[in-house]
Structures are given as structure tokens and as C-alpha cells.
């Protein structure tokens, strides 16, 4: 049953980063993503891409934490995007309105093209 | 369909962290046996997860258990039909009032669980009282 | 002791990966409520884990479920007593033959589960037949 | 329920390494430790210390994989030690006979003193 979230980070340019997730985005997983994201933002990251390619399950508490991250990033004048969502996760994001605040890209290649990382 | 032992599945789960994953996996295994497609199973899994989390987070029940029942059957039009009941013996809530649809993407952070359940399942009805809550939901195959 | 609702706990768990952790957590929560010490709870958890894994790995049962029952009570000498039954409806095995004690640390890699259960619990008895297996074990508090 | 194993590695000297575990050592966790341990052994590590300070739960399948690692290390003429075991994990190791093949130390300080890493 274990599917604990693991996060890895890839800095791109001076203001960009891709954050890869693996596993279940529940409250604990959401908090882990938030901790990493806020650290990156403190380090000057203004373009953050969350690549969820190895995440197959989310819950609404985890997603609510992602909304907090998006809000903080917008407050700072930055941009946050998502890519490699499963169809069900993308549907969940639509329901919860994430698509209004953050861009959703098919894959990392498209994301980097549309959200250049200086 | 297989023999009756496989058609029905009853579980009583403890309210421990991430138990919703066990519930979703068990239902997924059942639905897969009967040929439900991966994406529908995944939608069902996400609905089950939200219903179990609601029971754990909101029910405040003394017995600290979640009761699940899954039945796989064939609907009159020949499609696979999975019925799911997720129950708790908790304090209940006003399910009718909660049902009022909210506009997608209004800025609340929490409070999306029931809408996610509705969106991922084909039928949902909730019976709730001071004795507890029963969420009954149905997912059809192709 | 608390009210009866808390004294007894019955669970029916699906045989999915790591479900043994849910079983151990549920028993641990019950034992903690009644004041069992952390180390004894931990021993009990490890015994429950092995018994659940045996059911999942060896039982080959059609219903793919593990049945658990925990009862917390007080023994005649005044100590807390937790009784645990872990059952499956699988093919069973010759529990008597398996009971022959093996020397600690003989070089086999697998085949330690039952000895771990014996070592961590105060009483263990196993009833097994072609209908399934019931592992009954007892842990006493101080 | 998730308590998935996480491993981190600290190389010490030319032939030593400490492998830290966090989470449940089941079959999957055991395999993850084995993968890391074999990689280290291929890299020339002959003194390997497994520090289980953040592991509270094990099962007999996971431990059986640790026995395989110990056997491979002995075959190579190296040494494998454990430290920071909970009382119940230490007891389980005794039952399964690991104490015959591998040394068990109270903590990392004692382990490094008694199993110097060249
Ligand atoms: N099983 C339940 N027992 C008691 N109350 C519930 C239950 N399920 C839902 N509720 C109530 O309905 C509200 C809305 O639930 P939901 O849409 O899942 O959002 P959230 O869980 O984020 O609050 C909850 O806040 C709670 O008050
Ligand atoms: N619930 C069960 N159903 C069927 N067989 C079992 C069960 N529990 C144990 N056994 C049998 O007893 C043997 C010994 O079990 P155990 O000591 O736990 O070691 P291991 O699981 O590593 O083989 C198993 O290999 C299996 O043949």
C-alpha cells in the first residue's frame, strides 16, 4: 500500500526548476512538495514546473496544498506549470480550478517551450 | 461472470493513514477481474479515496472503522456495473445542503471531495444521519 | 476499561501490498488506549505483520481477504491482555509439523515468520485445515 | 499507511560507506537496500554499515534479503555491520541468526570505532 511521495529537483537556468514527483499526493506528499517549492522560491526560482509523471494518485487535501503553492508563486510574480498528468489527475485539477491559475502542459518539452526558464 | 465469491467484497477497514489506498486497490482488483478499463478504474479509485478520507476526517465515530461493500454485476443494458457502499458510524452531515453545486474553480481550497466523487462516478447518493453516513456510488464499464 | 465499543475490533482487510501495516496500526491504537507499553506494542505489531504476510503469501484463498479480531481485556492476575485472531479462508498447512523448533540462526533465509510470531507474543496457537487458517495469539501488558 | 523505504548513502574513506534507511524494510525495501549495497560493493566498498535509525518496522522477507547482502559481502572478504536497531528489530535479527554473520553496534560512533573504514 505504500506509495509515499518522493520528490527530485532539477534546476534550470538561474530562475527555473523542474520538480519531479513519484507517489501519492496526499496531505503529507503535498506538504513535501510545498517545502521544496518554497525553498526554490526563496532561492530565486520564478518558473517552476511540476512534472507529475510518476504520480498516479492524488487526493483533494494534497491538491489544496498545491493551490497554496500556486497562490504564493503568483504573489511573487512568478509562474507555475504542471505536466505529465494522468487523465484522472487532469480532470481533478479542472474540477478544483487549478487550470485557472496554473498552466497544464502535455509533457516537459512543450512546457519548457511555453514557459521559458531564464 | 465468475462465481459468487468473487462478485461481492465486504471490507471493514481501520481509520489509519492512507487506508483509502487499500480500499481503492481492492475495488480496482475486483473491477479489473471483470474487465473494466484502466481509466474508469482510476476514476473509481479517486472517488473511493475521497469518500474514505471524508469518513476518516469528518465522521468522528467511536468505532474508528470504515465499512466498504463492492458488488460487481451486469446492468440491464449489458454493461458491467460496480456498486460501492462506503459507510461510517459517525456523526453524519446535511448531505442535501452540501449537494448544491458550486461553480468549478471557485477559490476555496478545501471542500472539493464530494464534487470529485460526483465527477468521477456515474451515480452517487448519500444517506446521512446522526447514526452515520452511507455513500453509495456506481460506476459502469463499457 | 472503556465502553464495549472500544474493547473489541473486527476488521476484514483486502490482501493488497502492505495491508499488514494497517492491521498492526489498528491493533497498536487499541493496545495504546489501554496503556500497553511501546515496546510490547512494537513486538505485537511485528507478530501481526508476519501473520498477515503468511495469509497473503501462502493461503491462496479465493476471497482474498484477511479477517482480524482484537479483544482487549484484563487477565485474572490483573494484567492487560490483548487477544488477536488472524484468519484466512485459504488452503491451510500442517501447523504442528511447522512448530518443531529450529535452532536460532540456522542458515535458511526464508521460513522465519512463525518463529518470529512465537518470539514476540506470549501465547500462540494455530488451527489450520483445508478450510483455512486461524492464528490466535495473546500479548499481556505489565 | 505509507512508510516506503528511503535510502541515503555516505561514503567514508576509500572502502567504507554508511547506508541510512528510513521506513519499512519489506521485500521492496530490502531489494532497494540490496541494489544500493551491491552498487557500493562493485565500487570497492568492503566496510558497509547499515544505520537503521529511522526504520521501526521490518518483516522476515525484508530481513532475508539483508542476509543475502551479508553473504555476498562475506564472500568478497568484506564486513557488514548494523547500528541503531530498535529493541524489537534487534530481537528479530537474533532470531533469524543475523548476529552470527554481521556485527550489531549500538550506534554509529561505536560502529566506526570497531569497524574502521580505510
Ligand atoms: N462521512 C462524513 N461524515 C461527516 N461529515 C461529512 C462526511 N463526508 C462529508 N462530510 C461533510 O461534508 C463537507 C464537505 O466534504 P468534501 O466535499 O469532501 O470537502 P472537505 O472534506 O474538503 O471538507 C465536509 O467538510 C464535512 O462537513
Ligand atoms: N496462513 C497460511 N496458510 C497456508 N500456509 C501457511 C500459512 N502460514 C504459514 N504457512 C506455511 O508455513 C510455512 C512457514 O511459514 P513462515 O515460518 O512464516 O515462513 P515463510 O513465510 O518465510 O515461509 C510457509 O512456508 C507456509 O507453507
Shape of chain B: globular
- Secondary structure: helix percent of chain B: 25-40%
Strand content of chain A: 25-35%
**Average pLDDT of chain B, to the nearest integer?**
90
Describe this structure in words.
The complex is a heterotetramer, with 2 copies of chain A (118 residues) and 2 copies of chain B (142 residues). Chain A contains 5 helices and 5 strands; from the N terminus they run ββαβαβααβα. Chain A has helices at 27-42, 60-75, 87-95, 98-101, 108-114, and strands spanning 6-12, 16-22, 47-54, 79-83, 103-105. Chain A has a 5-stranded mixed beta sheet. Chain B is 37% helix and 30% strand. Chain B has a 5-stranded antiparallel beta sheet. In chain B, helix 2 packs antiparallel against helix 3 (38-58) and helix 3 runs antiparallel to helix 5. The longest helix of chain B is centred in the middle third of the chain and has 21 residues, at 38-58. Classes of the chains: A alpha/beta (118), B alpha+beta (142). At the A-B interface, helix 2, helix 3 and helix 4 of A face helix 2, helix 3 and helix 5 of B. The site of one adenosine-5'-diphosphate has 18 residues of chain C, from helix 3 and helix 5.
Keywords:
heterotetramer; A: 118 residues; alpha/beta; 5 helices; globular; B: 142 residues; alpha+beta; 30% strand; binds adenosine-5'-diphosphate
Question: How are the SSEs ordered, and which strands pair?
Answer:
The complex is a heterotetramer, with 2 copies of chain A (118 residues) and 2 copies of chain B (142 residues).
Chain A: E1 6-12, E2 16-22, H1 27-42, E3 47-54, H2 60-75, E4 79-83, H3 87-95, H4 98-101, E5 103-105, H5 108-114
Parallel strand pairs in A: 2-3, 3-4, 4-5
Antiparallel strand pairs in A: 1-2
Chain B: H1 4-7, E1 8-14, H2 19-33, H3 38-58, E2 65-74, E3 80-88, H4 95-99, H5 113-120, E4 123-129, E5 132-140
Antiparallel strand pairs in B: 1-2, 2-3, 3-5, 4-5
Helix pairs in contact in B: 2-3, 3-5
Bound molecules: adenosine-5'-diphosphate (2 copies).
Amino acid at each position: 500500500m505504500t506509495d509515499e511521495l518522493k520528490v527530485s529537483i532539477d534546476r534550470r537556468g538561474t530562475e527555473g526548476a523542474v520538480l519531479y514527483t513519484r507517489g501519492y499526493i496526499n496531505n503529507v506528499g503535498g506538504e513535501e512538495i510545498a517545502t521544496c517549492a518554497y525553498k526554490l522560491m526563496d532561492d530565486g526560482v520564478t518558473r517552476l514546473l511540476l512534472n507529475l509523471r510518476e504520480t498516479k494518485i492524488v487526493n483533494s487535501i494534497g491538491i489544496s496544498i498545491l493551490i497554496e503553492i500556486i497562490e504564493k508563486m503568483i504573489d511573487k510574480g512568478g509562474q507555475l506549470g504542471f505536466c505529465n498528468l494522468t487523465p484522472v489527475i487532469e480532470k481533478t485539477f479542472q474540477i478544483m480550478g487549478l487550470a485557472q491559475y496554473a498552466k497544464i502542459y502535455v509533457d516537459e518539452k512543450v512546457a519548457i517551450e511555453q514557459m521559458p526558464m531564464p | 461472470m465468475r462465481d459468487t465469491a468473487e462478485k461481492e467484497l465486504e471490507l471493514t477497514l481501520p481509520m489509519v493513514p492512507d487506508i483509502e489506498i487499500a480500499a481503492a486497490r481492492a475495488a480496482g482488483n475486483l473491477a479489473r477481474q471483470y474487465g473494466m478499463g484502466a481509466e474508469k478504474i482510476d476514476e473509481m479509485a479517486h472517488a473511493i479515496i475521497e469518500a474514505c478520507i471524508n469518513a476518516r476526517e469528518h465522521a468522528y465515530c467511536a468505532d474508528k472503522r470504515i465499512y466498504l461493500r463492492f458488488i460487481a454485476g451486469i446492468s440491464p443494458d449489458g454493461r458491467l456495473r460496480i456498486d460501492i457502499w462506503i459507510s461510517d458510524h459517525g456523526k453524519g452531515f446535511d448531505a442535501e445542503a452540501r449537494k448544491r453545486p458550486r461553480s468549478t474553480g471557485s477559490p476555496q481550497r478545501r471542500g472539493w471531495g464530494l464534487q470529485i466523487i460526483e465527477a468521477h462516478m456515474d451515480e452517487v447518493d448519500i444517506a446521512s444521519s446522526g447514526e452515520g453516513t452511507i455513500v453509495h456510488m456506481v460506476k459502469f464499464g463499457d
